Amino acid sequence: MDSLPIIDISPLYRRDESAWRAVAGRIDRACREWGFFYIEGHPIGAERIAALSDLARRFFALPLAEKRRIDIAGSGHHRGYGALAAEQLDPAQPGDCKETFDMGFHLPADHPEVLAGKPLRGPNRHPALEGWETLLESHYRDMHELSCTVLRAIALALGIERDFFDRRFRQPASVLRLIHYPPQQGAERPGAGEHTDYGCITLLHQDRVGGLQVRARRGQWIDAPPRDGTFVVNIGDMMARWSNDRYRSTAHRVISPREQDRYAMPFFAEPHPETAIACLPGCQDAERPPHYPPTTCAEWLLSRFAATYAHRRGDVAG
Ligand SMILES: O=C(O)CCC(=O)C(=O)O
Ligand SMILES: [Fe+2]
């Protein structure tokens, strides 16, 4: 079968234990076989997506100087606007042909964690577009809830306490990102070079243009085409580390669109920065010793940012 599974998660919003287990079973299989699947039956409506798409178009259409007022390169805690080619996901390729906006869990500048200089902590940096901040902050909260719902099913599938992730995802390091891929005539620059995601799970909304491709287990690239009303969910490196590769982070890439602009909105679900990421109890035994040394969420993320962002080279995890 060369197409990604589509899983209806609506039973996760009801109190039927056996239906819950059935969904968890499907997710478990998709995570083992693909590391990628679509979800439908989630509560994020088409009006919300339309309103976000409208704002994304307006933001990316602003003059560069205006967007650069919140340039991510000037942010110690990784928030704001990332210009074209600021990120190079595949080191063997030129910089990605995309521009981005990143936001996270907002902590005010006078919050003790921010004053203490904790990594990845601080205020969001929003553009001055009417309606932007309210909508984006609500969407961040709703995506956080959705990620926790999916993670509860994953906890069930992995045989750990149902609230294992809920307890670790308070004040999360999760990032909501808006991406604009401008059209390109030649194929010389990738939209997003081949990579795995760094976090736990990613929930991606893509528009109708297409171009996302996933590397299947046998090595071939398959399309992950747009499907209305769905999110594409994929396993990131932290979940691979937690599950000792029971769930593997799967490589993917985005081919630059040819004639039209493409917009996508990934939500990278990541726990509290200080969360320990070490092999889960049920994921190791004498035959499967832990593959990865323990780390923390912030340490791992900072090491990955340093490898992919020009302005962060030499920035070491602390
Ligand atoms: O734009 C997409 O469809 C995927 C983007 C992506 O893989 C990423 O930002 O990590
Ligand atoms: Fe990705």
From TrEMBL:
SUPFAM superfamilies: Clavaminate synthase-like (SSF51197). Monomer. Residues 171-271 form the Fe2OG dioxygenase domain. Keywords: Ethylene biosynthesis, Iron, Metal-binding, Oxidoreductase. Its EC number is 1.13.12.19, 1.14.20.7. This is 2-oxoglutarate-dependent ethylene/succinate-forming enzyme. Gene3D superfamilies: B-lactam Antibiotic, Isopenicillin N Synthase, Chain. InterPro entries: DIOX_N, IPNS-like_FE2OG_OXY, IPNS-like_sf, Iron_ascorbate_oxido_reductase, Oxoglu/Fe-dep_dioxygenase_dom. Signal peptide: none annotated.
